[in-house]
Amino acid sequence: MSSLKEINPISTNTENSRFHPLDQLTGDEIMTVAEIVRKGVPNLNIVFNTITLKEPKKELMMSYLGWDTTKPRITKIEREALVVALEKPSMKCYEALVSLDNGQLKRFEHIPDVQPILTMDEMFEVEELVAKDPRVQAECRELGIEDMSCVFSDPWAIARHVTYKGRSKRMMQALMYMRTCEDDNQYAHPLDFVPIIDLGLMKVVDIERIKPRDSKFTRPTIPLEKHNFLPEFVGEENFRKDIKPIIVQQPEGVSFKVKGTEIDWQKWNMKISMNYREGLVIHNVSYQDGAEKRPLFYRISLSEMVVPYADPFTPHNRKHAFDVGEYGLGLCTNTLTLGCDCLGSIYYFDATFNDHNGKPFHVPNAICLHEEDAGILFKHTDYRNGRAHAVRSRRLVISQIVTVANYDYGLYYYFYQDGSFQYEVKATGELNTHVLAEDETPGPYGVMVAPQINAQYHQHFFTMRIDPMVDGANNSICKVDTQRVPHATGHPNNMYGNGFYSESTILKDTAEGQQTANYETARFWKIINENRIHPYSKGPVGWKIVSNHHTPLFAQDDSVVGQRAGFAKKALWVTPYNENQIFAGGFYCNQSDGDDNVEHWVKDVQSIQNKDIVLWYTFGVTHLPRVEDFPVMPVEMCGFSMKPCNFFMANPGIDVPPTNKGINHSKLASKEKENKAACCTKL
Length: 683
Description:
The chain is mainly beta. The protein has helices spanning 27-40, 58-64, 120-132, 134-142, 231-234, 323-327, 560-564, 598-601; strands at 46-54, 80-87, 92-99, 104-111, 151-157, 171-178, 193-198, 203-209, 257-259, 262-265, 268-275, 279-289, 292-308, 320-321, 347-354, 360-381, 388-404, 407-416, 421-429, 433-435, 446-450, 453-456, 458-468, 476-484, 500-506, 524-533, 540-546, 572-576, 613-623, 633-645.
């Protein structure tokens, strides 16, 4: 523990009642926190890695939110900020806890042998440093590049490096590219060397060349053919001419209500927040079921993701990006553009983060909220009299889009009128490319998407942290497998061979809570409340969780990425609630060794039945790139859904009124005349 200078509390002018306990820090609060820390440790030369809200303890929030009625309701919770700072030039990591209610530094301590998240400030500094480095310039001259303004780099986390082991040094690697003109696609011109940077020294300490493997050449030439997708390169004359406008209108306004960051929509209620790391977080999700407001989920977020690449040779073996834990989805979030990123009647939420000086920077339109048509909610046609009754569905969309170097990810939370929930990732952006010599092949680890341009095979794993409170704080997880009747056709108990049944197993501890997908049994899992029995099904009420996007981790279990990203080895992990276990790859994920992740947490077997539990749910894609993914990649979608399973008394969307054809302005494409107003429930 570092000694703190005794100072008088700083007046924060923060009235606790102005804020919900989960509201992100304002710009003024960020500056106040930085001032408090500086005054508390005046002898340290620190830069502010992150300044963020310290979320209150769950036990306090359950009372504050009204779910815990066993004691008097808590109406005021201390507002605190968590600070991660780096001391220069040692790059030692410190954590601070600041009370915004009384303006005091409550804790300041050195955290040994860790490296916190990489920031945009550092990435810009590294790119500028690399371009000015004499050895980098010499490499570029040898490749025929004289103008260093044409050279660009993507600073990446270094994972683990055989020469620079451990976390005592804060390191990065830079993947190198060039452009032939402003706004040219740099991934069409990859370079063949990787500078290694020591951020403490702010110096290029090594340069690694990537040698051609099956080639007569010792070094590749730079591919100069342009592969661009921006409109000025494509040319207006080459655009399709047969696209007519699609206009989304809500002439009577939106169906949702927003109060601060609390959202009400179609019996759903929730609160949202934004932080530097997970980005968008959904809190305190409930559903109004008749006269009863039923709690569903305390907190849902994208806890971690990893993108491991397949090429086993240096330096490609270090390419496994943890986009949450190494870069931060909040820090990488886009400002969304009306009518482009989001279509319709849009409500935006802004975000505020900090720079290295402890000053706020503002991201307008960081979160998009809107409604959209979602096809048919339900329909039935009575074949006897021809009467058809159709009700169209709509969904509430809460989304953000992040850019992490070459990749862009659209992250979408969907809520539906039938009480179901869906999370979807839309991966797009550009492939990470590697240059090949003129006669070189990608081998078995990639595909040539253009002459001399190799797009390496890789995977994308996304791990959600789901903190359920289905009808109460204590829940269990049930595995459901569908099995064939174990009797051959002709057996008295399976005479015609068509029999199958479901088999449910409640997971009792963290050993059983480590689950893999099984398509042979159509396996899914349910979050159940064993303390509330459904009157019809005679079983616990619950919510099922399913995904068609499970894929195994193809790296070896004991590989570097296998050790660091243990969460990707299973489709589901279940742990008892622990307020310090928020990130599946560990709080200090950057340059980590894997000793603080979900795989490590379950080594000690603990009970998970009828407890306050957390689900770590992993889905993803194995991406074997196509030529069609270049120069810019069409969206690749993956995700999961949760649905009520013997939770309600009937279809909860049955009270959604039928759609009016006149209101939604549907008409025959072959006729310009509008249809008369009519419901979709007539003969």
